[in-house]
Amino acid sequence: MKLFWTLITLFSAASLPTPPNNVDTTTTLTLVETMPTQMEDLNQTVALHTHSAVIHLFDNAKSTIDLAVMYWSLLPKDCGWKPNHTKTTTADCSGFTRKQLDQQFLATRGRAVYTALTNALARGVQVRALQSAGFASEDDRSNHSNPESAELAIRFPATFAVRTLNMSQWYGDGIQHTKFMIVDGHAIMLGSSNFMDFRSLSLVKELGILVNNAPTLATDLGMFFTDAWSVAGVETPSEWTSLLYDEGALRPRMVPSWSPLLQIDPNTINTTTKSPLPSSTPATKVTPLKIQFNQDHSASSVFVSCSPLALCGGNARARRTSDEVALVSTIKQSTTDIAIAVMDFVPGSMGIWAAGAPVYWPALVDAIVAVVNAKAVRARIMVSQWQWTDPTMMPYLKALSSMASVCKHALAQTCQGSLEIRTFVVPGWNETVGVGRTFPGHSRVNHNKYIVSDSTANIATSNMAWSYFRTTVGTSINIESKSVAKELMAIFDRDWHSQYVVPLDSS
User: Fold this and answer.
1) Torsions phi, psi of 79, nearest 5?
2) What number of other Cβ atoms are within 10 A of residue 58's Cβ?
3) Which residues lie below 8 Å from residue 433, measured CB to CB, with a gap of 6+?
């Protein structure tokens, strides 16, 4: 509680000048959560709720807010996009009254965030919003993508700018999936939450990170926002793409013409060297930022990673580290424990969402098997069960469990590592579709996306499947800090031992 009030005090503090030697000091870091309704036992353990953090950031913004969002659904009338899956054609909030949405599902939190944002715009705060293409409101007759942001652009033409990033135009697949904000050049919030959707503030389990008074980190994340913003501003993407034969995916696929992947493919068709990304020098895994969190005795190594590669700015000598490299590194560098909490863990392309032929992607699987076999590492994976769980995930995970136990059969060596996989089940997950459903669609799921070891925390915006690292925009904040890792591991342990978790074979 003391940390929370310290954080609130610092929200209104002015940005400090960047200290010498690239080190931020007096920086606060807080883990931010959304706990779904009907889970009051865990709700009591949340130090700072997502909606409270967002509202306070908006209320205290002085000059600028940059928002990277997937879609907008803060107001109940805009609850969700028109589903195109085979399971349902019913819009997400249809069948529920305004009273139900407000009182039972806490839609008032979404309106409070919307009000805080409009108040910031009205007092002159300059807001840039980067959103994904492909999402339409159930209440929008013109089928306009993201009508809430379209309305804000009309209401506040002098202070609100929005761009839509259509990843399908660049890769033939994928979306703008990252979720973060940068406020006044010193405060950031990043994580799993689609914080412009009221369900992510009340009905979906989320985890993110809030960092205040960190100008170097905000600047570095801002470089990535600018890169994505620049790509979204390209008027003719078809003139900026090339065909690549992807040796990993074993198939040809479209990529941006400045993708680093093209530099190693001699058979590239229509290769160009143009890039809309501005010149930048981002922090990397090799050259991280140094930030002292919460008055720790020593500074932590911090860097922002990203996906896909073409959006990782910089140059060949100082390109931003990819999310895949960052996650694999966190796993391989663990010495005693590695814990993964993610909605989807699929070593390939996901069956429901993927376009084209299936792809096998063993990067994370290989890293986990390696540390379990070669080190005395206790590995744990916690995935989610919900209405849209990919049908390939459970078979893959059972195979992974078997692979990780192979070393126990080798008579010549002693296997001290272990792997255990469990599933987090939010009550009501199977009551979100069909006539008479109990909850709005696309809710009631543990949406977390993070990896934590004994010394490192990786807090991300992507599910762990091939397309999220190859065709979809994602971002991670990677922190080498025993104190931060300990705090995040405590949250994982809380969930792991809760009544909502079942063994893999029970899923």
Assistant:
1) -70, 90
2) 24
3) 87, 88, 90, 387, 441
- Between CA 445 and CA 448, with CA 447 as vertex, the angle to 5 degrees is 140
Per-residue pLDDT band at 14 (split at 50, 70, 90): very low
Q: Which residues contact 249 (CB under 8 A, 6 or more apart)?
A: 359, 466, 470
Identify the residue whose tokens are 């997950």.
429
Q: What is the pLDDT of residues 233-245, one digit of tens each?
A: 999 999 999 999 9
Which of 128, 301, 163 lies closest to 220 in space, CA to CA? 301
pLDDT digits (tens, 9 = 90+) for 193-234: 999 999 999 999 999 999 999 999 999 999 999 999 999 999
The domain limits of the chain are 2-274+294-506
Report how far residue 137's alpha carbon sits from residue 80's, in angstroms, rounded to the nearest whole number.
Answer: 6
d(Cα 44, Cα 97) in Å, to the nearest integer? Answer: 28
- Pick one of 3.40.47.10, 3.40.50.1000, 3.30.870.10, 1.10.760.10 as the CATH number of 2-274+294-506: 3.30.870.10
Rounded to an integer, what distance in angstroms lies between the CA atom of residue 137 and that of residue 77?
Answer: 8
For residue 4, what pLDDT is reported? 38
* 248-290 pLDDT per residue, tens: 899 999 999 999 888 765 555 455 567 899 999 999 999 999 9
Q: Which of 449, 447, 446, 457 is nearest to 489 (CA)?
A: 457
